[in-house]
Amino acid sequence: MNNPLSMPHIRRITVAGLSRTLLLALSMLTLLPACSDDEDNTVATPASPDKITVPQAALSPEGIQYDEANRRFFVSSRTQGRIGTVKDDSTYTQFADDARLVSTIGLNLDANRQRLLVAVSDNGANTSRSSAATRQKLAALAIYNTNNGTLSNFVDLGGLRPTQNHFANDIAVDSQGNAYITDSLSPIIYKVDTQGNASVFLENAQLAASSGFGLNGIVFHPDGYLLVARSNDGTLFKVPLSTPANFSRVTTTQSLVGADGLLLVDNQTLLLVAGSQSTVFRLASTDAWVTANRTGSFATGAVSPTTITRRTMDAYVLYPYQATSPRFAITKVKF
């Protein structure tokens, strides 16, 4: 009983040791939830795909915009008129349709005002809705609520010059919410304010095409002017918002024939889709777009590229293929 190694004494030492061990273990456990929370709260952003092929027959989309908030692309349709959305898994969903949407061309997503602006025209591609009254006469701006797909306004543009041919093509929106729409068959840029009032912003014979399509892609520059491309010869114009009649040509040595969609990446960088050249050009300017130089190019192949949109830090170009194609594609641009 007087043995120092008797069982009661051993039990006391063991309990004390266990107590210290348990305290150490508990102190370590208090640190684990913080690490676990950090891991749980880190949500990896899915990698953006290099190419999305969409199995929609004869849709022939002309315009595209990326909706960051809902992780989807908006696309128009030259041949069917309806507007749809595309997810990364190639799922196409109809977003909106209306009998007046003969052919939908350029799109502009005004995310701050929850608006999708749609250029509406008729060049005969939609055989089910085209008519003698609208063919090469229709030019309109349809405005949709991006939250629910309802049509909030349908603005007639062609009626401002009823005797001329028209093809509303692309759209830019300035910081005040005014929309500017190019006409490819008349040398006109229209303006539609936030109340839906339409006017001729600029009309000048120098903007006209000698043949084929004239004015096409258009973007708003935050320094207070528009950059506008003419398809037939690739001329790039700079149009001040305050004095549009004082427009000028941007000097560049790169041929931009076939110019279509434009994307202003930053104040000094512009991406331009030259459809007939099957190329996306990257242009840069250091003198407020008095001149511009090519700084890169992306070859699309013979896929009839039309226009381009920003997705976070990437740019995606639209391949409508032929009007009767069983699919279309959205492809990441890589310089």
TrEMBL record:
Q: Identify the InterPro entries for this entry.
A: 6-blade_b-propeller_TolB-like (IPR011042), Sensory_adhesion_molecule (IPR053224), SGL (IPR013658)
N-terminal signal peptide: 1-36
Fetch the SUPFAM superfamilies from UniProt: Calcium-dependent phosphotriesterase (SSF63829)
- This protein's source sits in the domain of life called Bacteria
| Keyword Cell cycle on entry | no
Q: Which UniProt keywords apply?
A: Signal
**Which residue numbers delimit the SMP-30/Gluconolactonase/LRE-like region domain?**
61-284
Pfam families given for it? SGL (PF08450)
Q: What is this protein called?
A: SMP-30/Gluconolactonase/LRE-like region domain-containing protein
According to its UniProt entry, this protein's organism is Hymenobacter metallilatus
